[in-house]
Amino acid sequence: ITDGITIGHPCCSVHNCSEDLPAITARFCNTHKELQNICSIQGCFQPVQQGCLTCSDPEHLYVQTMYEERGKSMLHLTHCLAAHTTIQPSTLLLETGHSKLGQSWTHNEQLIVCPCGIIVAHVTLFGGEAISSVADMLQVVFPMKTSVPDVLFYDNNCHLHCHLAAQGDQHFTGMVQPVNMFHFKSKHSENDAYCGQHCNLLLFPALYNVTTKSWVFNSSAAEQCNVWLKGYDAMVHDLDATCFNFFLDEMIKERN
Ligand SMILES: [Zn+2]
Ligand SMILES: [Zn+2]
Ligand SMILES: [Zn+2]
């Protein structure tokens, strides 16, 4: 079973960059440190003003002010600024988070768990729970065809199956990838042929008991692990990558 859990550690603000930060409060890794001198507003490539995170564009400066004053009431501040300045900040810019003023955190931790509850692997996904990242993880954790599990439960199995097929993958051809009934009913229109053909749980009578409407194996083991691991979220939130991984490794070994 594989599933993602939203715990993470600070990381480089460049999307999907996995290089270590030089300091725990740094916004960028050493490779991307030049970006500190570029305006933090997305799509703006002007150099920053000295001591600022943005360029001299009043609207961009305003976003920084808002960021720094976040402790105070946003609304109050907006009213004050509107009353005393001519700046018309685009609220879109503020609300949709098109800026990288603060630190970034890794997107999630991907777990591979056996139905018995043993955690086989955990991998940090930096930019998102992308299907390709999950496929890469599986390849690393199960490097030989003989080590590939017979069955993989994953709530996005149909897209993973599609991705592997598109890659012309031969490694995982022996692995069946069922999805649960909930996925089937809620994620697709009635007649999603692809999912129905490859991931339909009725295709796997050995895995799913139609009379009792239940899985033969504990397909919720990953969710149960997630609940357990989520309890450490606050503890690991501000650790650097090395300590984060060490802590998780040790806790998982204890649990296993
Ligand atoms: Zn980087
Ligand atoms: Zn700017
Ligand atoms: Zn599906």
Structure description:
With 256 residues, this protein is α+β, with helices and mostly antiparallel strands. It has 2 domains: 2-8 and 106-250; 27-102, no CATH class. It is built from 10 helices and 7 strands. It has helices spanning 58-68, 74-84, 91-95, 131-141, 157-166, 181-186, 193-198, 221-230, 233-236, 241-255; strands at 2-5, 10-11, 104-105, 108-113, 119-125, 208-209, 214-215. Strands 1-4-5 form a 3-stranded antiparallel beta sheet, sandwiched between helices. Strands 2-3 form a two-stranded antiparallel ribbon. A two-stranded antiparallel sheet has the order 6-7. The radius of gyration is 23 Å and the shape is elongated. The site of one zinc ion (ZN) has 7 residues, from loops. Residues 1-63 form the CxC6 like cysteine cluster associated with KDZ domain. This is CxC6 like cysteine cluster associated with KDZ domain-containing protein. Pfam families: CxC6 (PF18721).
